[in-house]
């Protein structure tokens, strides 16, 4: 077992944040390692300062008048009326709340369950097996660490993450963790098919050709990001994931039964409750940019929980840090004299570089790319 010695908030010794961060990182055991080491108090590096906490917003976290819509995709390929209804509901959701859930989406329930179990197997194996993948080099095809912005964020989030670039240039099967290798490959193919369908529906809902967003390479890349949020003994002191917006075109999220995902709407936190068999879908910054603010990439977060571990799998449709010189800007068919471009063109990589430099600081990188 990895030995980790981090300070809690008990004031027993002088706190050295930089040293604590390095000790945590050097352990290569993540938050799961803290739990395994029997640490029952939250180390200082995870405690959110009172002045930056969002407790004032939590009173609206379970709004009675607003909920994330659940959209049924069953039969939309055969029934034009069902297809039109699904498109309209998606459009309304993404112009306002930025999130919706889909059921009857084509990804088998058995595949979804095995994907969650594969993530669990990865994190609950011996530390030595996981450390092979631990790195801060996010250009590697398989990356495991805790907090990509560990050294730049004001406070660390209480979660561990591993991810893999599954398109357009996936790793060889031998490069993937053995405990979840087969399901990562299978699940990625299933979600890629769903993503293409969703982008067709979103294109049509914007009045564009069904293949317009795919033609722009919005489905060219896929990053599968697997999060593990251990049960937290003091959830009120920390966060599973800070307020942020996604840095991709589209996100398809598989979450387990524990919950904790919240979306910010009109300064109120709205729960995105787990729905059996459903996948959560939300717009990323890059889709807001190319739709010239028609679709909203909204702030969301994950609250810490005492019931964990919570497992989620976020599939980002983006080429991320993989090399590409393709420029993305507002779609010309959506522009007019009354609706001029809001953003300048950028490559996905340049956008991600800016995002990584600033981390999950609660502000949208889109502001940097405005004209």
From TrEMBL:
Residues 218-320 form the Fe2OG dioxygenase domain. InterPro entries: DIOX_N, IPNS-like_FE2OG_OXY, IPNS-like_sf, Oxoglu/Fe-dep_dioxygenase_dom. This is 1-aminocyclopropane-1-carboxylate oxidase homolog 1-like. Keywords: Iron, Metal-binding, Oxidoreductase. The keyword Disulfide bond does not apply. Belongs to the iron/ascorbate-dependent oxidoreductase family. The gene is LOC125316394. It comes from the Eukaryota. Pfam families: 2OG-FeII_Oxy, DIOX_N. Gene3D superfamilies: B-lactam Antibiotic, Isopenicillin N Synthase, Chain. The keyword Disulfide bond does not apply.
């Amino acid at each position: 077992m990895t030995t980790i010695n981090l300070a809690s908030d008990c004031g027993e010794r002088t706190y050295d944040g930089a040293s604590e961060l390095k000790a945590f990182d050097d352990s290569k055991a993540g938050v799961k390692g803290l739990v395994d080491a029997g640490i029952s108090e939250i180390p200082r590096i995870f405690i959110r300062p009172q002045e930056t906490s969002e407790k004032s917003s939590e009173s609206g976290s379970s709004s009675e008048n607003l909920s994330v819509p659940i959209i049924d995709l069953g039969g939309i390929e055969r029934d034009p009326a069902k297809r039109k209804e699904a498109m309209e509901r998606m459009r309304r959701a993404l112009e306002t709340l930025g999130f919706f859930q889909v059921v009857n989406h084509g990804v088998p329930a058995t595949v979804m369950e095995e994907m969650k179990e594969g993530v669990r197997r990865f994190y609950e194996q011996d530390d030595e097996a996981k450390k092979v993948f631990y790195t801060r080099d996010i250009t590697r095809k398989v990356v495991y660490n805790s907090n990509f912005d560990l050294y730049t964020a004001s406070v660390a989030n209480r979660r561990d993450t591993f991810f893999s670039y599954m398109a357009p240039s996936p790793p060889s099967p031998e490069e993937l963790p053995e405990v979840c290798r087969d399901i990562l490959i299978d699940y990625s193919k299933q979600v890629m098919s769903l993503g293409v369908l969703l982008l067709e529906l979103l294109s049509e809902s914007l009045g564009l050709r069904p293949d317009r967003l795919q033609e722009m390479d919005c489905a060219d890349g896929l990053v599968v990001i697997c999060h593990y949020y251990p049960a937290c003994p003091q959830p009120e002191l920390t966060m599973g994931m800070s307020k942020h917006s996604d840095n991709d075109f589209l996100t398809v999220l598989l979450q387990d039964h524990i919950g904790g995902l919240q979306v910010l709407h009109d300064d109120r936190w709205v729960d995105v409750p787990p729905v059996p068999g459903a996948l959560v879908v939300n717009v990323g910054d890059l889709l807001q940019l190319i739709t010239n603010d028609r679709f909203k990439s909204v702030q969301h977060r994950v609250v810490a929980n005492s019931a964990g571990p919570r497992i989620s799998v976020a599939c980002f449709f983006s080429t991320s840090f993989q090399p590409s010189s393709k420029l993305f800007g507002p779609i010309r068919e959506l522009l007019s004299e009354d609706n001029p471009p809001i953003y300048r063109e950028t490559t996905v990589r340049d956008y991600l570089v800016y995002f990584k430099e600033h981390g999950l600081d609660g502000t949208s990188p889109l502001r940097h790319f405005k004209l």
